[in-house]
């Protein structure tokens, strides 16, 4: 279900009272969901209410999630970062196509 929402363009990092979906998945020890969210470039460093997803995984005693989150943080940043100018360019293309939702998502990542 999570993959379907993300494939349909759901925003991967919305913040709720408990944090982002990555916070929730890590805090519940849901390795599969954590992996899917990370594969869709979820912000693994986002701090909400003083807690990062790694801290949530630690609090849940989820060794698998902890290992995955540590691994992704050790990856070279170039693999996970998209240059701001690329995002702006893609946002402009989306605006020309009148795809305002996609444009907003792209611009919000700059």
TrEMBL record:
InterPro entries noted in UniProt: Ankyrin_rpt, Ankyrin_rpt-contain_sf, Cul2-RING_E3_ligase_SR
ANK repeat intervals: 17-49
Keywords: ANK repeat
A Pfam entry, by short name: Ank_2
PANTHER family cross-referenced by the UniProt entry: ANKYRIN REPEAT FAMILY PROTEIN, PTHR46224:SF18
Record-given protein name: Uncharacterized protein
Species in which this protein is naturally found: Aegilops tauschii subsp. strangulata
Taxonomic lineage of the native organism: Eukaryota, Viridiplantae, Streptophyta, Embryophyta, Tracheophyta
């Amino acid at each position: 279900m999570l993959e379907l929402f993300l494939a349909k363009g759901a925003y991967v990092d919305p913040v709720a009272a408990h944090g982002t979906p990555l916070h929730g998945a890590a805090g519940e020890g849901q390795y599969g969901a954590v992996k899917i969210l990370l594969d869709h470039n979820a912000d693994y460093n986002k701090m909400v209410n003083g807690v990062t997803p790694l801290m949530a995984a630690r609090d849940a005693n989820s060794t698998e999630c902890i290992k995955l989150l540590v691994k992704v943080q050790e990856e070279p940043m170039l693999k996970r970062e998209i240059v701001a100018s690329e995002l702006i360019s893609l946002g402009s293309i989306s605006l020309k196509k009148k795809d305002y939702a996609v444009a907003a998502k792209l611009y919000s990542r700059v």
